Amino acid sequence: MAPPNVMSRRLQFAVLLTDLLWILISATAAYLLRYRINGLSATNHRSYIECVLVAGVAMVVWAFLFTRMRLDGFSDGWEAPRVLSQVTTGVLLLSCVMLSAAFLARQWYSRLLLCYFGAFLLIGFVAIRSLVRAFVASRFRNRAQQQVVVMGSGNIAREVADKIRRHPELMKNVVGFLYSANDLPLGSPRIDVAAPALPPTSTVGVIELLKKHGVDEIVVAHPRASASEIQKLLRLSRLAGIRVSLVPEGYELYLSKASFLDVEGLPMLCLEERRPKQVAVAAKRFADLVIATALTVLASPIVLIAAASLILSAKKPFKRELRCGLHGRLFLMWRINVDRDATELSGLRLWLARLSLTELPQLLNVVLGDMSLVGPRPESPDRVKHYSEWQRQRLSAKPGLTGLAQVHGLREQHASEDKARFDLQYMLHWSPLLDLSLLLQTLWTVAIRISHPGSNAVVTRTPERSFTEVLDVDRSHAGAD
Fold first, then answer.
1. Domain of 85, in residue numbers
2. Taken in order 38, 40, 45, 48, is the CA torsion positive or negative?
3. Could you give the 3-state DSSP secondary structure of residue 112?
4. Is the same domain home to 421 and 285?
5. What's the whole-model pTM score?
6. pLDDT digits over 32-68, tens only?
7. 75 in a domain, yes or no?
8. Of the residues 145, 180, 190, 308, which has the fewest C-beta atoms closer than 10 A?
9. 212 and 308 fall within a common domain
């Protein structure tokens, strides 16, 4: 089997190649549907040649967007709403580029033809990624994957397991965790089921146990054992033919882009600080102002109806809450005065809370510059004062109405640490196109709440096996090995 990174590049190339072929097929199908099947004849044979040329230009533009936006469907972890939103964003941007080029070249095309072409592209691109996902899943079910155990019991170990699960193309299956008997496994607060643990055993016994369960790889994710104990376990693992991977200690530096440099066999972890350019920040602010103003006008009937309903019930229509914004600056965040956690909600108030429409007045905060449309959700000063050093990095971005954590189902009641991991990932990979994709994913999340009121976007996990290792049982012998 090819290494995971090679396999990932093969998948990306396969998806891109299929996309480009589908662009040509879509252009041909749109041309035939517009001019042949509908009974309208083309003026001459050159019309189809022009259609092919336009498809060629679209292929070049799509190849550029595919690389810049990582539109393969797997780079950021497979999730259907995210894939659909990214592909939709890519198709819309491709359409805008093509229309702009046609306008500048003074070439006019049938609007029906363009609609057919765009619809075929969107449906086909989503289908291609779904078929590739099904192919990967079939290989996964057919035992082509490698069995992986994560060494560690903290949040980093849990996150490593989560990320592996979100990337089926890696062909890795996390079967359990390995940790010292003195450490308690720290599960995510989203996990309600305790992981069954095997009886403690010695280091040598753990290796035999891992071989018995067919484990192919150990991922070391910040275990609390001493360096000598870890070195002994890793040496025995290599001798047993079990691959070893390491998560570097600097992993918490989320806003730094990491790369490896090999200096004569010495691996060096290089960290590069990623800061958005001032032009990009200004463009984001301009887009926030324009879109928020338009949304304020569109949302005003809902806000007015909700306010009137609360006034008739002898309640204040709005409330303001103190929040920490950019660089920790305090501001007052607006909300419709509905308690979303109340159990007796019904009628209009129930739908306002369920669809998060209570947040619509925060469009005013966006217009005033306290918030952005997309970014980390602002939290209260009481929560912020308990932030760890790396969690405080989320204050480096302006808070938003929605964000990466929210489209993954995390809301105000969830732990700040869980949300910070998504927020810092968003800040590292931020781009205007990512903002547009997250706005579309937010609409998807709202649609799910309408169709399935009791659903939650957070995916619960099945319990894993915990391979508990008593590293200190033979600690006195560690130095002799």
1. 4-141
2. negative
3. helix
4. yes
5. 0.71
6. 888 776 555 544 445 778 888 889 999 999 999 998 8
7. yes
8. 308
9. no
